[in-house]
Write a structure and sequence with these properties.
The structure holds three protein chains of three kinds. By secondary structure, chain A is an all-alpha fold. Chain A contains eight helices and no strands. In chain A, helix 1 (about 1-20) crosses helix 5 (about 95-125), helix 2 (about 25-40) packs across helix 5 (about 95-125) and helix 6 runs antiparallel to helix 7 (about 160-190). Helix content of chain C is about 80%, strand content about 0%. Classes of the chains: A mainly alpha, B mainly alpha, C mainly alpha.
């Protein structure tokens, strides 16, 4: 119980900091819009093929903007040695990780939900056809991405070239979650039946479970070591 | 037949080049580290002697 | 170069002998495959390196976990050696493949499950090594590397399985005849002979790389001492 309370306290702290400064959400959202712009030059945005690629496009936007958010996660603790203070506190490493992961998930989901309507307009995609399932995919996919990203944010916090290291380390590992999210999202956008794609939901759930447990177990070594 | 032999030859060469380049890189790094180690030991002797 | 110094001549000699044996098997002994011709022999030194790379990351993960449990930097030596040598073998897999694919299937590359996984593995190895270069303190470096390796090893397995799932849904041209395509028994002999030789070479290179890492740490330690004075 203490564990959960500590995690929630840390999550609330990060959320509060961000609510006041809005530094990350503004930057990440702007970047998402820029990426949407760039994509419009790479292919014909009105074609039918776009709908087939829609899930992939969207999650690429989310991935690129997402690393900005995740990078900041532990980086914001480097000022005033607050990371040392956090580690020295009675909160277990796993709770610190969980709290930050929760906060990051909230940030990323916010980013995703804000970007979605813009994406819908720019690329002529109906995203409201199956909102319940879409949100489930968003939550499962984002949590998986966030778990990996938060751990690696801790790993790279004191490392040179942190901003480049994070995506290089995170993306190869998140490939399965990304694949599943893309497949499911495209299915929802194109109005296809979800039944044959349910296996991807299982993939996401398995991915999330395995890496959440792994992260909670190993993050201690990164924070203290 | 001759045409396909070219591909086999290329693949074989690439495989060897990769390994030999790596072994060479190991050798080069070892030499550099040994030299630095000697230099550091000498520096340490000097500083201790003072 | 101390590849064959007094204490460690057995393994390199064994590696050399097995290499010669494997070369004989692959180029002289095994009969030429009927449909693809002489180019098919590439398979015998294209496939085993991938398996060696997989062994590399698994052993690396084992060493990483041992380091996290004991904080003994010797395990860190093993880990980095495995990953770096694993990278060499995975590179070999990725670069020899196209020379087989192009003449036989007409394409340089395809995103099938195995090739995609091989490339993801390659990127993981590279990411690990770049991370290590960016951390100076030995224990921090070892801890960070260890955590990364465990995530990557587990991730690699999941990536492979997910790719298999993806490709069953989106069939692509599959190089090397896909899973379970028949291999005549002489081919198995050549393949396994090649794999065995490569595993011994892998072990050899890991030993050399370990010694290099020990030397590196000694030098770094001395460097710190000298600068502290």
């Amino acid at each position: 119980m203490e564990y959960l309370r500590a995690a929630l306290a840390i999550a609330r702290k990060d959320l509060r900091i961000e609510r006041r400064s809005k530094e990350v959400t503004n930057a990440a959202f702007s970047f998402a819009l820029v990426v949407l712009l760039l994509f419009s030059f790479t292919f014909d945005p009105s074609g039918e093929e776009t709908r087939a690629m829609s899930g992939g496009l969207l999650w690429l936007v989310y991935s690129f903007a997402g690393v900005l958010v995740l990078n900041r996660s532990f980086a914001r603790e480097t000022a005033n040695d607050s990371l040392d203070a956090l580690v020295a506190s009675p909160a277990p490493g796993g709770a610190i990780f969980l709290g930050k992961a929760l906060a990051n998930t909230v940030f990323l989901l916010g980013l995703e939900l804000a970007t979605l309507p813009v994406f819908g307009v720019f690329y002529n995609v109906r995203w409201d056809l199956n909102l319940g399932w879409l949100l489930l995919v968003f939550v499962l996919g984002t949590w998986g991405f966030t778990v990996i990203g938060t751990v690696f944010s801790a790993v790279t916090v004191n490392v040179r070239l942190r901003e480049v290291m994070l995506p290089v380390l995170v993306f190869p590992i998140t490939v399965p979650a990304l694949m599943a999210a893309v497949q499911l999202t495209t299915t929802v956008f194109t109005g296809q039946p979800l039944a044959p794609e349910m296996v991807w939901i299982r993939v996401l759930v398995a991915f999330d479970l395995i890496f959440t447990l792994l992260a909670a177990a190993l993050v201690e070594f990164v924070l203290v070591g | 037949m001759e045409e396909n032999l070219k591909w086999l030859w290329w693949a074989f060469s690439v495989a060897w080049v990769i390994h030999l380049a790596y072994v060479a890189s190991l050798g080069r790094r070892q030499k550099r580290l040994r030299e630095e180690l000697e230099a550091l030991k000498a520096m340490l002797e000097e500083k201790r002697g003072k | 170069m101390t590849m064959k110094n007094g204490s460690g001549w057995l393994l390199p000699s064994l590696a050399g002998a097995m290499m010669i044996g494997a070369l004989y098997l692959v180029f002289l002994w095994v009969p030429t495959e009927r449909s693809m011709g002489i180019v098919q022999r590439i398979f015998y030194f294209h496939m085993p390196p991938f398996l060696v790379a997989v062994v590399a990351i698994l052993v690396g993960m084992g060493a990483a976990i041992r380091y996290l449990m004991t904080k003994d930097l010797r395990f860190d030596e093993v880990a980095v050696a495995c990953i770096e040598v694993g990278l060499v073998f995975d590179t070999m897999n990725l670069l020899t493949g196209p020379f087989w694919a192009r003449p036989v299937w007409g394409i340089w590359w395809t995103w099938d499950a195995r090739l995609t996984s091989a490339f993801v593995l390659w990127l993981m190895f590279v990411g690990y090594l770049i991370l290590r270069q960016a951390i100076d303190e030995p224990h921090m470096r070892a801890a960070a590397s260890a955590v990364v390796t465990v995530f990557q090893a587990v991730g690699a397995v999941i990536v492979y399985m997910a790719n298999r799932l993806w490709r069953t849904q989106h069939p692509q041209p599959v190089i090397a005849g896909g899973e379970g395509s028949g291999l005549a028994s002489p081919m198995w002999v050549a393949l396994l002979g090649s794999l065995a030789a490569m595993l011994v070479v892998f072990a050899c290179l890991v030993q050399v790389r370990r010694r290099l890492e020990r030397l590196r740490r000694e030098t770094e330690g001395l460097r710190r001492e000298v600068h502290a004075l």
